[in-house]
From TrEMBL:
Belongs to the cytochrome b5 family. MAPR subfamily. Its main location: membrane. Residues 77-173 form the Cytochrome b5 heme-binding domain. It comes from Turnera subulata. Keywords: Cell membrane, Endoplasmic reticulum, Heme, Iron, Lipid-binding, Membrane, Metal-binding, Steroid-binding, Transmembrane, Transmembrane helix. This is Cytochrome b5 heme-binding domain-containing protein. It comes from the Eukaryota.
Length: 193
């Protein structure tokens, strides 16, 4: 009993708090400490963690990301033909056109590939949509009619970004024409089917 009362008196003398207040504050500090600790990983536990690959059982195939192909020059293409390069065929590159120029955006598959946030632009001429910062499919066109100065500037900035980041692989044409050389050297212009 003597020890208990000495301890209580010591707490009061040193902290200026009643023993009840002292223990309440101590308990609150302990609870706060536990809550904060639970927000962090124990350093030992963290170091013990195996690398991600080691967690994959040897019976499971390790997913191999599709290799990024070197950009191939594709030349003239109609908007209709461009649509085939929207990521639905994984063997084809992902293409996107701005101001009639076609860029290979395959390195950014996470943006433009199926399920990506900008998948709607893949295989399309996206000039108007980019100028207006619009996700409306009706704006997936090269038609810049009625755009303001500042919207055209936005489009220009996008074009610079694409020119810098991606390889240009072709250009949009309204229709494809083939120039055939006849026997007498004359050129015959023929619409391609
Ligand atoms: C809430 C609004 C938006 C947010 C938070 C956002 C955020 C982002 C971020 C973080 C990136 C990645 C940038 C990088 O790593 O290079 C990005 C890229 C992009 N954003 Fe947005 N974005 C928004 C709206 C839009 C809109 C409205 C458009 C056009 C209609 C757009 C078109 C794009 C395009 C085309 C890219 C890819 C550029 C590239 O290929 O490097 N974004 N966005």
């Amino acid at each position: 009993m003597g020890l208990y009362s000495t301890a209580m008196e010591t707490i009061e003398a040193y902290t200026g708090l009643s023993p009840a207040a002292f223990f309440t504050i101590a308990a609150l500090m302990f609870v706060t400490y536990r809550i904060v600790c639970s927000m962090f990983v124990d350093p030992e536990e963290f170091n013990d963690k195996k690398p991600i690959d080691a967690n994959i059982s040897s019976t499971q195939p390790i997913p191999i990301p599709a290799p990024i192909q070197e950009p191939v020059q594709l030349g003239d293409m109609t908007e209709e033909e461009l649509r085939a390069y929207n990521g639905s065929d994984p063997s084809k590159p992902l293409l996107m056109a701005i101001k009639g120029q076609i860029y290979d955006v395959s390195p950014s598959r996470m943006f433009y590939g199926p399920g990506g946030p900008y998948a709607l632009f893949a295989g399309r001429e996206a000039s108007r949509a980019l100028a207006l910062m619009s996700f409306d499919p009706r704006d997936l066109t090269a038609d810049l009619e009625g755009l303001s100065e500042s919207e055209l500037e936005v489009l220009q900035d996008w074009e610079y970004k694409f020119m810098e980041k991606y390889v240009k692989v072709g250009q949009i044409v309204t229709e494809k024409i083939a120039v055939l050389q006849t026997d007498d050297g004359e050129a015959n212009v023929k619409k391609e089917e």
